[in-house]
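Chains adopt folds. We examine one example:
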Amino acid sequence: MKKRILFVFLALVLVVSLVAFAACAKEEEVPPVEEEVWQWPERLLICATSTASAGYGALIAFLTPLSDDTGTEIRIVCESNTQLRHRWLKEGRFFFGGVVLGGRSMLEAQTGYATRDGGPWQLRTFYAQNRMESGFSVRGDSGIKTPYDIKPGVKLIWFPFMGPTAKNSLLALLAWAQVDEEDVVWVPASTGSAAPKLMMDGRGDTVFGMFPTSPSMYNLEAAPCGLGWIDLDAEADPEGAKRFFEVYSDLSFGKITVGVPSAIGVNSLCGPSAQGGTVDIDPELVYHFVKWMAENFDRYKDAHSWCQYMTVDNLMELAETSYVPLHDGAVRYFEEIGRWTPAHEARRQQNIDLITRYIETFQACIDTADEREITVDPTNEEWLELWENAKKQLPKLKLFIGIDLD
């Protein structure tokens, strides 16, 4: 009887011990960590030039599936004035815009950008937008084949609606040709589509920025006057190219590979352009945007002619050649896929430091102007002289293009 009672007692002790052990083990179990789901903003605002622009069509092509995937409402606001778009981006009113072309004019506060609130700011690249292959188109029967065929009296077509950056490329062409801007005729065009018509009827000799893939270029090539292009052979004439590059360095030199037959093989200006905005945009948002663009490329690459160039490789080319640094969010993506090196980061920091120097120098000039009671206005020659003299002490903003132009 005593043995039976002892056996039952020991059995109860064992059961209690097992229950206690199980309870302790349960308390020590670590619950699985749920992966945080990125919450996209309810709305994103994007800025573009106009609904008729190629850039607007490209935005629609990839932003439509992005909106479908994320549930984010996307609004595209159009403004043809580049200076105003830059100001909106600086203030963080928009997520991004196509700003790297013309970025140098803003960062160097050229002409119309030299205002109290319009000088340099911390611009960043988010993603590749397009691969620009463009140049200076002329009438096929004009006789203008190289920059040195530009002579006093030539009629240069430009776009006043594009703001202070409108003449830069043409001024660069004049620098290559060693012709003074006062010795040429400036012909304003009200729209991009008006420029080919001005050439066709002889009111203008050349214009920059006409893409060889543009329908208007095909029309001009089929006209009796035909279509030609100014050949920019930087390797054959590095001194001329250097003079050009000192004025305009938003694109590098290369051969045109697409578009009208007359343009194929012409030495001209090429390189990736970018979407960008202010450094203050949330890095998480930029990172997830870059990640979505990279991982969904096959879904939108054929939706627009620009979309085929919206690649990680072209974004890397921008990182390695442009004076506009990548945003922290874009860098995070490159780090994640193992393509960001200490050399990349060192170059990015150099660009950031250089932009910071421009910002600080510009503000110092404003302070000096206020002390001297000089009106800060781009139409005031005294103010412009003050800023230009200070800017001479700063390194030039330029692309790294693989051709020694120093």
Notes: Confidence is low (pLDDT under 50) at residues 6-10, 401-406. The two ends are 107 Å apart (CA to CA). The chain has 14 helices and eleven strands. The longest helix spans residues 342-371.
